Amino acid sequence: MTVGVLALQGSFNEHIAALRRLGVQGIEIRKAEQLLTVSSLIIPGGESTTMAKLAEYHNLFPALREFVKTGKPVWGTCAGLIFLADRAVGQKEGGQELVGGLDCTVHRNFFGSQIQSFEADISVPILTSKEGGPETFRGVFIRAPAVLDVGPDVEVLAHYPVPSNKVLYSSSTVQIQEEDALPETNVIVAVKQRNLLATAFHPELTADTRWHSYFMKMAKEMEQGASSSSSGTIVSVGETSEQAKPDIPIYQ
Ligand SMILES: NC(=O)CC[C@H](N)C(=O)O
């Protein structure tokens, strides 16, 4: 089983490094025909407008939509979540093309601008039940989007509690207001719908590989379900010296 990582812009190297730590080979995808060589795909974080422009320039949208439609596993992180959403608000003037497939509305910069980026431990019961480990996951939110609403087939995997007087979103803006009172609103930050997984944060920037492992299991289950005679195998890169060296800055 080889995993494609859309490599137009953003944190594709970090995803490939995280996969490598699991012994899985990640392949950089820049052209439509390369999608034919992989059985699952990660769309990384970055800047979704730029990424969309590059995808458009390389005529990748039809192939990406086809990939999603044929039921192959796709995981979008941050800008990748925006790519996968059926509906997005808070876009730049003129909007941007989306791959779609995930029945949800996403707010592109829900948590505010770049300087309002933050890290927080988020509760991840479903991830923990599948992958073990701590009850929480260190969410790295970089000018992060959030999911505003989901359709009936979408499973919510994680929330982030925000004081409800702090974030007021309309269809196009987020206003951060002076905080003085609770209660909290649970904002959706991780979802799954059949073959699609999406997180508003960046697991590839942490040392915790549970989301990558979760995605690999999801891909394996789907592959086994799709074809009982599947010959797909995880390509292990083994204990190479390349694997041994620390390859990215890790935020823990
Ligand atoms: N870290 C990220 O991927 C940020 C995504 C950003 N909000 C965008 O619109 O593209």
UniProtKB/TrEMBL annotation:
It catalyses: L-glutamine + H2O = L-glutamate + NH4(+). The keyword Lyase applies. It is an enzyme of class 3 (hydrolase). GO terms for biological process: pyridoxal phosphate biosynthetic process; pyridoxine metabolic process. L-glutamine binds at residues 46-48, 108, 142-143. GO terms for cellular component: cytosol; glutaminase complex. The active site is at 78 (nucleophile), 202 (charge relay system), 204 (charge relay system). Residues 226-252 are annotated as: Disordered. HAMAP family: PdxT. Belongs to the glutaminase PdxT/SNO family. This is glutaminase. It comes from Brassica napus.
